[in-house]
Design goal:
This protein is mainly α. It contains four helices and no strands.
Length: 124
Amino acid sequence: MNVDAIIDGAALVCLALGAFLSMAAGVGLLRFPDALSRMHAATKPQIMGLFFVIAAIALDQRSWVTVLILVPVVVLQTLTAPISAHMIGRAAYRTHNFSDEHTLVDELAPAVDKATREQRRSAR
C-alpha cells in the first residue's frame, strides 16, 4: 500500500470525525434544555471537531508552512472557548437561566450569596 494513500485515508477519517463532532455540537445547542447544558455542547465537541478538521488539513497538505499557519488557530480556539463558556455560564447562573432539575450540586450558591450580602452592606 502506498504511504500517500494511508495519509489520505487518515485525513479522511479526521475530517469525518471533525464533521461529526461539529454537527453534534450544533445539535446539542438546539436540543439541550438550558444554558449550562448548551454551553457544554458548544465547547467540548466543537473544539475537538476543530482539532480533527485541522489535523485533516495538515495531513492533506503535507507542508510545514500549513502546520505553522494552523497552530495559532488551534491555540486561540483552545484559549478562547473555555473563557467564553465560563462567561456564558456565569451570566446564565446569575440570571437564573438554568434548570435546577439538571443541576446535581450547586457549589457556587454560598459564594454568590456571600458576595451579594457584602455588596448590599457596602451600598448602605
